[in-house]
């Protein structure tokens, strides 16, 4: 898995020059007139068989299929098709990147067709909103009041607003995560809020809030005061366990500036035992990101130099096994050279069996 051949680079040098023509989902209808004349076999196929055939199309082609005829449109937009198509092994997760600091517009990369598509996200107002996703469902939360939340299906562009979550109205840090239960078609949204105790630089109020789509209600599952540590904006749910990174609130060595907390959403441990689940990170970490890859926790981050922890010497990928980190890959040096050496120079995300790493300082998207 750590072989260099597992890394693939996809460049987008021409974004700034505008010399590349990107497909837009709003323009895909223009191609359907040419395709419709060739469609005839679907007339003799039952709905369940046609649905199965359509589910194996690339995601971009599914958009086109919905415009062929009324029957195809109804199939593609049906809840059963949307859920069943997410189980098809040929589908690969897309990568979305914003191209504006103000407008919620950007491009999504299809790893199957290796093409970029222009996408306007619904509900979201600016590109600095919090975003979390699971099984094709996307959750948005505004970055100002952190009280506006929406759950959206980007394919159908159907959005649902959620009630304002409980807890502090204005928190210093918030970590958003969403988890979809494919068996029940339900979902949970979790928010970890962290707010500094007034007049105390080392103590932080931490609270965990959970939304259940079946009951359509929020519940505060934990409130606790952390000393010397605070939560941030990074969290993910894997197999019913909420994982989130915590950061040193001052003092301590560089090697001990980050840690991982586990919180079981099913058993919901009582107040006062949260720090017992603390797991130190494997190295001096920068740009740490948590990901759910087939219900296994993966962490991607920059590896800080021993003498200068704020400068990274490489990018690593780790798998959490029990309470131990196992390094499964490290970015080859020839790819890392294009990322620069300073902190906060890259973003990463992943799901299923793909990890994307985007360089802010170079026109490159790496796929592992």
Oligomer state equals: single chain
Based on helices, strands and strand pairing, what is the structural class?
Answer: mainly beta
Structural domain tally: 3
Q: Radius of gyration from the CA trace?
A: 22 Å
Sheet with most strands: 4 strands, antiparallel
**Approximate shape:** globular
Spatial arrangement of strands, main beta sheet: 1-24-23-22
Low-confidence stretches: 13-22, 24-39
Could you give the count of β-strands? 24
Order of helices and strands: EEHHHHHEEEEEEEEEEEEEEEEEEEHEEE
The share of residues in extended strands comes to 35-45%
Rounded mean pLDDT score: 81
Q: What helical percentage do the residues reach? A: 10-25%
Distance between the termini: 9 Å
DSSP summary: helix tally: 6
Question: Care to describe what's here?
Answer:
With 368 residues, the chain is mainly beta. The protein is 11% helix and 44% strand. It has three domains: 13-85, no CATH class; 122-280, no CATH class; 282-368, no CATH class. It contains six helices and 24 strands. A four-stranded antiparallel beta sheet has the order 1-24-23-22, with no helix packed on it. Strands 2-5-4-3 form a four-stranded mixed beta sheet, with no helix packed on it. A hairpin with a 4-residue loop joins β23 and β24. The longest helix is centred in the N-terminal third of the chain and has 9 residues, at 47-55. The chain is globular, with a radius of gyration of 22 Å. The protein starts with 7 loop residues before the first strand and ends with a strand. Residues 13-22 and 24-39 have low confidence and may be disordered.
């Amino acid at each position: 898995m750590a072989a260099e051949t597992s890394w693939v680079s996809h460049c987008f040098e021409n974004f700034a020059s505008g010399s590349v023509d990107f497909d837009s989902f709003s323009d895909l209808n223009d191609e359907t007139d040419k395709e419709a004349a060739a469609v005839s076999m679907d007339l003799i196929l039952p709905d369940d068989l046609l649905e199965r055939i359509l589910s194996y199309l690339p995601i971009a082609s599914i958009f086109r299929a919905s415009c062929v005829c009324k029957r195809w449109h109804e199939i593609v937009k049906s809840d059963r098709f949307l859920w069943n198509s997410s189980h098809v092994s040929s589908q690969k997760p897309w990568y979305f990147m914003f191209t504006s600091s103000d407008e919620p517009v950007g491009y999504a990369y299809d790893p199957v067709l290796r093409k970029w598509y222009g996408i306007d996200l619904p509900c979201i107002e600016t590109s600095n909103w919090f975003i979390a996703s699971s099984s094709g469902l996307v959750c948005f939360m505004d970055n100002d009041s952190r009280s506006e939340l929406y759950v959206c299906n980007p394919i159908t562009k159907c959005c649902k607003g959620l009630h304002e979550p409980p807890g502090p109205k204005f928190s210093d840090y918030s970590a958003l995560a969403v988890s979809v239960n494919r068996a029940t078609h339900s979902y949970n949204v979790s928010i970890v809020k962290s707010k500094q105790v007034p007049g105390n630089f080392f103590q932080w109020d931490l609270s965990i809030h959970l939304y259940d789509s079946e009951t359509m209600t929020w519940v505060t599952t934990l409130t606790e005061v952390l000393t010397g540590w605070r939560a941030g904006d990074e969290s993910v749910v894997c197999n019913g366990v909420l994982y989130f990174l915590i950061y040193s609130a001052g003092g301590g060595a560089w090697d001990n500036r980050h840690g991982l907390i586990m919180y079981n959403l099913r058993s919901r441990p009582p107040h006062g035992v949260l720090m017992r689940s603390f797991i130190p990170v494997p190295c001096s970490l920068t740009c740490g990101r948590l990901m759910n890859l087939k219900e296994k926790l993966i962490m991607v981050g920059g590896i800080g130099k021993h003498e200068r922890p704020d400068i990274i010497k490489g990018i690593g990928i780790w798998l959490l096994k029990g309470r131990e980190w196992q390094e499964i890959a490290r970015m080859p040096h020839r790819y890392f050279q294009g990322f620069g050496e300073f902190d906060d120079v890259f973003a990463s995300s992943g799901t299923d069996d793909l990890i994307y790493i985007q360089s802010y300082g170079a026109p490159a998207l790496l796929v592992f």
